[in-house]
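ok so i was messing around last nite and threw this chain in just to see what happens. nothing serious, just curious
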Amino acid sequence: MPHTTKKIRPPSSGSVSFERLAHFMICLSIVLYALYAGSSFFIPIAFGLFFSLMLKPICHRFECNLPNRILSVVLTLLTAGMMVLGVLVFFINQIREILTEADDIFSGLQETFYEWAEYGGGRFGLSGREVEQYIDQALTSVSDQPFGILSTGLSTSGVLLANFSLVMIYTFFFLLYRTPIKNFLLGQLQREDQVEGLQTLTEVQQVAKNYLGGMGLVMLILGILNSLGLFAIGIDYYLVWGFLAAILAVIPYIGTVIGGLLPFIFAIATTETLWQPLAVVLLYVTVQFIEGNFITPKVLGNSVKINALAAILSVLIGSIFWGIAGVILAIPLLAMVRIIFTHIEPLQPVALLLSDDLYKESDKFLSDYNESRFRLSNIFSGKASLSLLPRRRSTSKPPKRVSHSDAQVVADPEPE
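result:
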């Protein structure tokens, strides 16, 4: 009987290489652990990078009139610092005045709760003495709850606040060395990919700059709307409460709730009527609706282009890794990642999955992206690489050699 041997079928070219997948998971785990364990190191760097992107247009204006970049960067930081200092001085003075009335505010809050609790307790057959005992036990924790939430949030982001000088130092050097950093990143690409790489970096920079600038405009609009509404209702310190809620709105989903809860409790303690606290709630609900459906989509929609599900998930993941700082940075970081994915062919479906056009362009997954080159499995099978897409052909021929001055222009298209 002849001896037969089975032929071993070679793995198909599209099968997943578990070795590649294991290497990827190990590297991803190391990166995520480093971001989590080294949050005190990475958070100031991340904020310094975003601040430098936001301040770059101001720095560029100074550089157009001053030949020295160092002097331009210093003047840029001084200008931004004076604006921030003015806002801080305003809030500190107003909060100091509020704290001088803390006893009266607490007494008014206590009396109002007594009246409401006695009215409700009478309907449930509770005596006034029982109601007073319950109020005495619960009032302190109830009145301190929003302040506790706020202080907890600030302590979570204390790494940023405690190292504010370190953030400014990073911002200074990112602004000063932005051209060499771009040159270094472009130098890591093949010569034929450098133009596409420059386009990618420009889009990423534009997203970050537009997001931060847009958030500033959104906070200004919210502060004005809140303050005008509180002034019409008759709430004292309407500017403080209005702009405090606007600043807290930078924390997605929970910032506005905290910002509206504080003036609501203040209205309960300092007003004689019931309609004013209810009007405060109605005001913040209305402003939140306007902000979520009209202001933010109009101001930030063109720069972020992230769908709601991806935004919520990024905020949750950011809070796990970096606390409040991660919540603030999650959406712009995800927007920048989406831009990078759009320039890498196998990851283009993932970019669409993160995009706000997901519902309108859902058919692309089974039409434009229904090819093997767009499947994630090809990354782990070795058939596809994470290189940038080839740039469209241009009529002009690329130079054979890039001089020092040309590299400066390629890396930073703005005039120096």
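not much to say yet. The CA atoms of residues 10 and 17 lie 13 Å apart.
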